[in-house]
Please model this.
Amino acid sequence: MNEVRIKTTGPTDVIPSSDGRLTLSIPIQIKRRSGRNLVTLPNGEIAKPRPWDLAPTPLQLALARGHRWLAMLESGEAKSLKEIAEGEKIDSSYVSRMVNLTTLAPDIVAAILDGELPNHVTLFDLAVDPSALWDEQRARIA
Model:
């Protein structure tokens, strides 16, 4: 029979059963952040997600769309935001708001990509009428 050692670092319960199995109870919390569920361990650390569990967040997808559509305009592939909207079969105001995301401060973009924006920040906060000044953008989401 293989020997298994269990090392616990926090409050856990190990319950043996009559057939030799063990039930390990670990108190965790699941918190939602940036559209993802994160596991908070008993010691307060957040468990790192596995690479294959990471799907892009809605903010990350919106940022990517904005950059793709801006590139289409800059390359001449599309002549206007309206043309992009018609090609995508969506409202032109949505296209405009996503392109607005391309003007965000680099640290805000990094926070979006890393999933580290504060929980209260929404796509609306970032995409609707963003300031041209990065300090004002930062103050808006603080």
User: Anything to note?
Assistant: The chain has two domains: 13-49, 56-141. The first strand starts at residue 13 and ends at 16. Strands lie at 13-16, 22-25, 29-33, 36-40. The two ends are 56 Å apart (CA to CA).
